[in-house]
């Protein structure tokens, strides 16, 4: 889906180089299974995704540790990564590149033996770290249950300013007439959100979890140039609220030049961000791998394995996915149901995944396939055609007069020819299928599947994608032998 206006405006400001403070990358070694892998932060908002236990929270805790916070909140690596009765840490190093203005400096905090070092040389920057404690119901938070007494009175309050109230209403999707953070005369150190909606006023004790979470988040003062780290940003929020929250953060980032690093399991959060802002963390036993630029579909397929396929196949986009499905249906139908085919996004992501295939770092058999216009890369196969799938198939079908497609989509041949000949004049081949589908009033995937099927049956050589078919068959036969 297209990026929101808020994210596009943020991207434009980022490309101009208007952010004077930025954590560029971080490397973690010697803690929770990290062995020196680097995570790059190539956008003002970066979302880290991956399965539970992959190391997402470790990344934002390490990021919080790398700065000497200029705000009231102080964070230390020793707090996030303590020694316990069961864990004695040594040989730990957290390295990072910190940009200030036009200068980038490599910094570190480390624990070579028993003491953490480097805290006194950290760069100063406002830091806000929000962990999962924020999503606890008000009544379950430490010290709050005793505040739920009708005999108590409100002691102090801080009303949301108009812009904060509007943000709160937009994210939750309800119109609030007022909102404030209040305390009681029993304990003035614990804030409770109190809101008014539809003529009724109610406190955090009677708000929904998502409503209270957003109220608390809006109440936080986010300083200019700060870095804000939020664990599981989507928790307690429905999809529309998740999208609106990311757009709200994009506006804050753009206007206050703030860097956000989030962890998430949500495809809705990932869809709101451009590819450079998405990072997937793999875990394979004790090993970790970091792949930037993944598609939301790829991330979801890795985190949800309900179909239990025997082989993972990764391709660049949905057009390649459908083409591979049709090739398998023609050449090796019995194997199609045993495979999970997912789109990963940019070719650079595929090449990174190919390196993981080469290093045998996937937990089950995996095949990575790049489009035909890509050069060979380690661990990757190439789609047939020596060009982007759309260009190869459109050009070949044009040579044979577009015959055989119209009956598969229940449309007029002459209408199809007119639409296809018009589409092929567009400079961007990624728009060709949608252009034809829109003029023919049918789904783009339905049209592309029909075109792929005709191309395979009438244009492609008999042994089309032989290397891909053989590789898939070899993997599946190996699985049978192992079983």
Descriptive report:
By secondary structure, the protein is an alpha/beta fold. The protein has 4 domains: 5-126 and 224-279, P-loop containing nucleotide triphosphate hydrolases (Rossmann fold, 3-Layer(aba) Sandwich); 135-219, no CATH class; 305-384 and 462-482, no CATH class; 389-458, DNA polymerase, domain 1 (Orthogonal Bundle). Helices cover 36% and strands 24% of the residues. The strands form 5 sheets. Strands 8-13-14-3-15-16 form a 6-stranded mixed β-sheet, sandwiched between helices. It has a 4-stranded antiparallel β-sheet with strand order 2-1-5-6, with helices on one face. Strand 11 and strand 12 (200-203) form a beta hairpin. Helix 4 runs antiparallel to helix 5 (209-219) and helix 15 crosses helix 16. The radius of gyration is 26 Å and the shape is globular. The chain starts with a helix and ends with a helix. Residues 479-483 have low confidence and may be disordered.
CATH architecture identity of the largest domain: 3-Layer(aba) Sandwich
CA radius of gyration is: 26 Å
Strand order of the largest sheet: 8-13-14-3-15-16
The fraction of residues in strands falls at: 15-25%
Multimeric state of these chains?
single chain
> For the report, how would you describe the main beta sheet?
6 strands, mixed
> What would you call the structural class?
alpha/beta
What CATH first level of the largest domain would be assigned? Alpha Beta
Total separate domains = 4
Q: What would CATH call the homologous superfamily of the largest domain?
A: P-loop containing nucleotide triphosphate hydrolases
In helices, the fraction of residues equals 25-40%
| Unreliable residue runs | 479-483
What is the CATH T-level topology of the largest domain?
A: Rossmann fold
The number of distinct β-strands equals: 20
Averaged pLDDT: 91
**N- and C-termini, Cα separation:** 41 Å
Number of helices: 17
Shape: globular
